[in-house]
Amino acid sequence: MVAIDDRVKTLVDRDGFPAGSIGVVVSVYGDGPGCEVEIWDQSGYPVDVVTYSSSELQIIPSS
C-alpha cells in the first residue's frame, strides 16, 4: 500500500505516460487502492497528476 510522499515508479502506461515513469504520491483515496501521483519529467520537474491504483505502482526505497 502506498502512502502520501512515497516516491514511485509506474508499472503501466496511463494518460500518455509510459510504464517506468517516476513520481510522488500526492493523495490517497480513503482506504481504497486509488491514489494521485505527481509525474515528473527527466529533470525531476512535475508535469502532471495522474490517478493510479496501488497495484500499478512500485515504491522506490529512499536511500
Can you offer a commentary on this structure?
The protein is mainly β and 63 residues long. The protein contains no helices and 5 strands. Strands 4-3-2-1-5 form a 5-stranded antiparallel beta sheet, with no helix packed on it.
List strands and helices in order, with pairings.
Blueprint: E1 7-10, E2 22-28, E3 34-40, E4 46-53, E5 57-59
Antiparallel strand pairs: 1-2, 1-5, 2-3, 3-4
Provide a short characterization of the protein structure:
The chain is mainly beta and 63 residues long.
Question: Could you list some keywords that capture this structure?
Answer:
63 residues; mainly beta; five-stranded antiparallel β-sheet
